[in-house]
Write the structure tokens for this entry.
Amino acid sequence: MNSSHILELNRSELAELILVHRRDTPTFRPQSINPWMAMSLMQKAIRRGEVKWALTGAATLLQDSPERLWRRLGITAFEDIGVGDFDAVALTTAGLTGKVWRKGVGGEWAVASFLVQRLCRSVKCRAADDLAMVCMEHPSLEADRIEFAVLSTPDLMEIVTSEDTLSRRSLALWFVMGTDRYRGDGLQKRRGEPQAVMDALCDHGYPDTVVEVCREGLKKTGEILPAFIPLLWRELEHSDSHVEPDNMPPEKIINGVPSWAYGFHTRDGKSSLRAFRNMDCETTRWLKDAVPAKDHGWVLGELLFRVESGGVDQRLQWTAGNCIRHMADFETHGIAEAEAKTGLALFRKDLPLLNEARHNVISNL
């Protein structure tokens, strides 16, 4: 089955689903927030299965910055859903086809609102994003990050298709895809051959229905995460799995938006974290004792992500995904695992103080 046929089947399925559900298209209700907050709100609400907030973020983006809406939906599908519900990823990728196509199947809001609701209902697997963190930061790959930059394409592909660890195979895949195009912190630039790599995965028995969606996802998002999905798919085929909710902290509405939307990558979120760092509490005292001063901001942002921002309502629990998540959560911050666990526990306890800082920062804008 060729790539165009696979993608067309996905588009046809999405068009049929939208036709069935057009009468249930929700009301278009944007909110007066900037595009960065809207992106944060939509993506984090999708993670949490919070349909109302996810639709609010999507409507705001469609009104004020539609190009950001479609790219962010694609990124969210591969970053937060992945192998948890690959059918939802395929449908979302189909929805990125283009404005003319979307107009022909019901219009921008009909497509966007359907996909947002579908992603909210999906089982989530954040293993692709965790893999990216491990590839860039995990100490066990320090030598490989240097060596792989100068290996040939055949040598890298031999690692990708071997029985080596998932983390080494993923790092090799990143380099052979091209770190010049798909950049990562700490990864030397290497020119890649993405089309040839995805062809090679098909030749090595990875399902073409998965590979072609990921190939299209690479084009539409410009991110490396879609390339990891076939490797994760193969791992999941041989693993037992079940679904559990994350233990997410309670939220607080701040200036009409839930507190968890004020993430590290928003202006208001960064300002709030800076204000929190000036507070005297268990987390900030731990930060000063356990983490070099130059890394305080980065580590605190990572703690925020692990405690609050990255929480999902239905997390796929499976062997490889759990292992990679553990590595990303506790072994990539340049501090001992025990210290990382302590920091996460303290930050969770002090989260009400962060919400206080958020409220004060937002109130003074």
Remarks:
- The first helix runs from residue 3 to 21.
- The mean pLDDT is 96.
- The radius of gyration is 21 Å.
